């Protein structure tokens, strides 16, 4: 009996299928030509739009062209193609440069302060200044930022003060995060910078969700999610790419490819054409840029932002750079890379000196300015540190607040 | 001294106090809050008898020795995880790749669900897989692979397939400045998934024997390593291969007044508490290291409780749903008529693990000692 019912059901379904095909045939005069016959000119599987192949070929990764690395300046700060030079005001470029120096000074002083045992932990952004400042400068101030942890420069560009950074590192009572997180886990609602969390790549699908919300709100804002090339290996990265593409979200995926994930070099992290190589596979518009070229990073981020907001589509940017510092204060990178390698990158391809040379060629910067700004920033950071150290810790009762909106009975 | 300050804080009710930046702790607390270490005294084991030649090893080196032994004696064994090739961020896999080659000791891409899923697959195909998850806090992307896959492999296939050759190692517990994501003790999440064994050593000798036992065990094991002990704990560890039993608790100090139960770092705190109780209260506490969180040694625990009638279970993980709750429930079932006082749980609070407040958060010797006094005067 049951079997009979089953078979009948099956037949019914088949009939439904046939009628579906008939109706599709009727539509074939429309814009998409649908032809179910196996010898038709194009395959019509629902899962792909492609062509037929009558000879067997395994497609190898090397049969694709690799993404080129877009740049605007050479290593000496000379513009390579004048039509690609962003026409930026001298004050604007100078501000970018000053922020890079300030970032560098803050990193140096806070790194030292950890070494002296004054703060518990620190992560520098040495070598990635152009990547951070170039991208931050191209965004709208209220575009939402989801960071990984090595994006201090983005928040600095937005005006988070040195005192605010230093207070977070000390976890004193002026820290917006109320002393709950390790140093460098910054966050500021006022600066549209979502508080950093240590578990990697969790911010990526979240950024896509925020972008979707912005799209529905039709508010002209977009979202940028920063992540390392190591973090791109997490499952969350793939979830994020796929959601952004299928749900048409105005989000910029900004990968900082700095060559290492702690000790793991890129050739043990991925095969294929880097992180940019993922883009086409997910149907995401993609660009690769020289991350040590501030102007190039600015250009690609600006273009990506315009595209994302106008088209409501995601963009993937892969910025190629090099992590000059140790992974963090818990790491000694000489255990897995040579000092010579680091030195070579530092001297051959410094993003800071490249932008300085550009400024100098324009006549917008000189040695005297350089000296006085470096001195000024050092004083600024050292004074901030001395002050923050004396500021008291948050009230210990803060430990119990904000777990929930209202404190549950079991905590009070 | 720290204790009166802390006790004062803990008695202070939190309700009704305003929240918000700018609220300061009293200056008196400043020094205490700025302390950045976990306070405990490691108490080493007596050298093992009959296990041959020993060598001074810290916890890292004992783990390295267990992995080394496995790679020598089991030709199928592989060791992998994030940054494992250069020795791991805690240096537990130091020199293993040099000695055993890149096919057997290797870096994985940065992906915990991949690490555990890959490890299960290796085990299913007959290879001994020792996977490292860099921090226990980062095991959650692999939660599905562990809870829905590893734990249920044998059961769902009617014992046709299993992944008993899988062992997952992860650095675990507080260090004093790790905050939310470098401090957690997630053992009770996994204790809820029948099919997994969860083991936590208290020092180097136990670590080597237990890790080897996990690797050779017929079920998938999670081996949580108290990372504050990696360097701080040094003992004379037997050089050759040996295993220690899983599912067996250790009675470390015998006593008749109060049973103190813990695992990992907490065991050393409880031993100190037993000393304090002896000195200041003139009573003998019994200290038990549970060793295996699941399946756990109900017999040893209940025998002790029947003798003492008073129990304290301490762990760093939060109170609600922590493994102390499970132990407490079984004790009241099995030893109800022997109890002289309610079982007390001394644990982390039901909050995330907070950075500058770590000294307040942890169940240190003062909080445990307070509990001893409370239970004795109940
Ligand atoms: C889920 C998770 N797994 C592991 C870690 C430990 N961890 C912290 S940073 C890091 C490397 C990240 O490398 P990458 O994404 O390339 O960023 P970079 O440090 O180079 O900026 C690892 C493995 C973590 N924080 N979260
Ligand atoms: Mg990296």
Automatic annotation (TrEMBL), chain A:
The branched-chain alpha-keto dehydrogenase complex catalyzes the overall conversion of alpha-keto acids to acyl-CoA and CO(2). It contains multiple copies of three enzymatic components: branched-chain alpha-keto acid decarboxylase (E1), lipoamide acyltransferase (E2) and lipoamide dehydrogenase (E3). This is 2-oxoisovalerate dehydrogenase subunit alpha. GO terms for molecular function: branched-chain 2-oxo acid dehydrogenase activity; metal ion binding. Its main location: mitochondrion. Its cofactor is thiamine diphosphate. Belongs to the BCKDHA family. Residues 97-394 form the Dehydrogenase E1 component domain. It holds the Pfam family E1_dh. It is found in: Mitochondrion matrix. It is an enzyme of class 1 (oxidoreductase). It catalyses: N(6)-[(R)-lipoyl]-L-lysyl-[protein] + 3-methyl-2-oxobutanoate + H(+) = N(6)-[(R)-S(8)-2-methylpropanoyldihydrolipoyl]-L-lysyl-[protein] + CO2. GO terms for biological process: branched-chain amino acid catabolic process. One of its GO terms (cellular component) is mitochondrial matrix. It comes from the Eukaryota. Keywords: Metal-binding, Mitochondrion, Oxidoreductase, Potassium, Thiamine pyrophosphate, Transit peptide. Its EC number is 1.2.4.4.
From TrEMBL, chain B:
InterPro entries: THDP-binding (IPR029061), Transketo_C/PFOR_II (IPR009014), Transketolase-like_Pyr-bd (IPR005475), Transketolase_C (IPR033248). It is found in: Mitochondrion matrix. It catalyses: N(6)-[(R)-lipoyl]-L-lysyl-[protein] + 3-methyl-2-oxobutanoate + H(+) = N(6)-[(R)-S(8)-2-methylpropanoyldihydrolipoyl]-L-lysyl-[protein] + CO2. The keyword Cell division does not apply. GO terms for biological process: branched-chain amino acid catabolic process; response to nutrient. Keywords: Mitochondrion, Oxidoreductase, Transit peptide. Pfam families: Transket_pyr (PF02779), Transketolase_C (PF02780). Its main location: mitochondrion. SMART domains: Transket_pyr (SM00861). GO terms for molecular function: branched-chain 2-oxo acid dehydrogenase activity. Its cofactor is thiamine diphosphate. GO terms for cellular component: mitochondrial matrix. Residues 57-232 form the Transketolase-like pyrimidine-binding domain. It comes from the Eukaryota. Its EC number is 1.2.4.4. CDD domains: TPP_PYR_E1-PDHc-beta_like (cd07036). Together with BCKDHA forms the heterotetrameric E1 subunit of the mitochondrial branched-chain alpha-ketoacid dehydrogenase (BCKD) complex. The BCKD complex catalyzes the multi-step oxidative decarboxylation of alpha-ketoacids derived from the branched-chain amino-acids valine, leucine and isoleucine producing CO2 and acyl-CoA which is subsequently utilized to produce energy. The E1 subunit catalyzes the first step with the decarboxylation of the alpha-ketoacid forming an enzyme-product intermediate. Heterotetramer of 2 alpha/BCKDHA and 2 beta chains/BCKDHB that forms the branched-chain alpha-keto acid decarboxylase (E1) component of the BCKD complex. The branched-chain alpha-ketoacid dehydrogenase is a large complex composed of three major building blocks E1, E2 and E3. It is organized around E2, a 24-meric cubic core composed of DBT, to which are associated 6 to 12 copies of E1, and approximately 6 copies of the dehydrogenase E3, a DLD dimer. This is 2-oxoisovalerate dehydrogenase subunit beta, mitochondrial. It comes from Cryptotermes secundus. The gene is BCKDHB.
């Amino acid at each position: 009996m049951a079997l009979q019912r089953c078979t009948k059901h099956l037949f019914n379904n088949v009939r439904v299928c046939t009628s579906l095909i008939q109706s599709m045939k009727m539509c074939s005069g429309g814009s998409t030509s649908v032809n179910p016959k196996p010898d038709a000119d194009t395959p019509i599987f629902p899962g792909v739009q492609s062509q037929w192949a009558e000879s067997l070929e395994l497609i190898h990764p090397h049969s694709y062209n690799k993404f080129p690395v877009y740049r605007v300046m050479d290593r000496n700060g000379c513009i390579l193609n004048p039509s690609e030079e962003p026409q930026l005001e001298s004050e604007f470029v100078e501000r970018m440069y000053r922020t890079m120096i300030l970032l560098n000074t803050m990193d140096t002083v806070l790194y030292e302060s950890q070494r002296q045992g004054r703060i518990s932990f620190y992560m520098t952004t040495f070598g990635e200044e152009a990547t951070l400042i170039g991208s931050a400068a191209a965004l709208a101030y209220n575009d939402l930022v989801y960071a990984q942890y090595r994006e201090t420069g983005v928040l600095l560009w937005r005006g988070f003060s040195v005192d605010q950074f230093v207070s977070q590192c000390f976890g004193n009572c002026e820290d917006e995060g109320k002393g709950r997180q390790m140093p460098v886990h910054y966050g500021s609602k006022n600066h549209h910078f979502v508080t950093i969390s240590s578990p990697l790549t969790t911010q990526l699908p979240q950024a896509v969700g925020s972008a979707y919300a912005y799209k529905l709100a039709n508010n002209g804002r977009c979202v940028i999610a920063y992540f390392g090339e190591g973090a791109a290996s997490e499952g969350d990265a793939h979830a994020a790419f796929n959601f952004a593409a299928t749900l048409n979200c105005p989000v910029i995926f900004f990968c900082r490819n700095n060559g290492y994930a702690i000790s793991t070099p890129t050739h043990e992290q991925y095969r294929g054409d880097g992180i940019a190589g993922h883009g086409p596979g997910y149907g995401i518009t993609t660009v690769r840029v020289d991350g040590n070229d501030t102007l190039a990073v600015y250009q690609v981020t600006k273009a990506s932002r315009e595209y994302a907001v106008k088209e409501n589509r995601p963009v993937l940017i892969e910025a190629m750079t090099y992590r000059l510092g140790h992974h963090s204060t818990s790491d000694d990178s000489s255990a897995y890379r040579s000092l010579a390698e680091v030195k070579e990158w530092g001297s051959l391809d410094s993003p800071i000196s490249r932008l300085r040379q550009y400024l100098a060629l324009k006549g917008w910067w000189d040695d005297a300015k350089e000296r006085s700004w470096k001195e000024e920033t050092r004083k600024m950071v050292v004074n901030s540190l001395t002050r923050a150290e004396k500021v008291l810790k948050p009230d210990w009762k803060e430990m119990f607040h904000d777990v929930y909106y209202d404190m549950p009975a079991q905590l009070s | 001294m720290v204790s009166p300050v802390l006790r004062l804080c803990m008695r202070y009710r939190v309700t009704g106090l305003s929240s918000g930046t700018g609220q300061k702790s009293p200056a008196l607390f400043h020094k205490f809050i700025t302390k950045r270490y976990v306070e405990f005294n490691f108490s080493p084991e007596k050298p093992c008898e009959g296990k041959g030649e020993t060598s001074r090893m810290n916890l890292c080196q004992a783990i390295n020795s267990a992995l080394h032994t496995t790679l020598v004696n089991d030709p199928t064994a592989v060791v992998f995880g994030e940054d494992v090739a250069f020795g791991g961020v805690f240096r537990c896999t130091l020199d293993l790749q040099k000695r055993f080659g890149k096919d057997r000791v290797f870096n994985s891409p940065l992906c915990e669900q991949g690490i555990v899923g890959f490890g299960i697959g290796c085990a299913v195909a007959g290879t001994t897989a020792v996977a490292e998850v860099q921090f226990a806090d980062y095991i959650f992307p692999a939660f599905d692979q562990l809870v829905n896959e590893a734990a249920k492999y044998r059961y769902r296939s009617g014992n046709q397939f299993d992944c008993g050759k899988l062992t997952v190692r992860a650095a675990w517990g507080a260090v004093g400045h790790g905050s939310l994501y470098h401090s957690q003790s997630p053992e009770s999440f996994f204790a809820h998934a029948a099919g997994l064994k969860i083991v936590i050593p208290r020092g180097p000798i136990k670590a080597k024997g237990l890790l080897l036992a996990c690797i050779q065990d017929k079920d998938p094991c999670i081996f949580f390593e108290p990372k504050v002990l990696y360097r701080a704990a040094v003992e004379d560890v037997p050089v050759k291969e040996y295993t220690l039993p899983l599912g067996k608790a250790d009675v470390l100090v015998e006593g008749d007044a109060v049973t103190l139960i813990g695992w990992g770092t907490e065991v050393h705190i409880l031993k100190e508490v037993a000393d304090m109780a002896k000195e200041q209260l003139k009573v003998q506490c019994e200290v038990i290291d549970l060793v295996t969180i699941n399946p756990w040694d109900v017999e040893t625990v209940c025998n002790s409780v029947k003798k003492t009638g008073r129990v304290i279970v301490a762990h760093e993980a939060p109170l609600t749903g922590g493994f102390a709750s499970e132990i407490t429930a079984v004790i009241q079932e099995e030893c109800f008529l022997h109890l002289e006082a309610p079982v007390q749980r001394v644990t982390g609070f039901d909050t995330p693990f907070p950075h500058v407040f770590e000294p307040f958060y942890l169940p240190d010797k003062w909080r445990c000692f307070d509990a001893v006094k409370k239970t004795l005067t109940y």
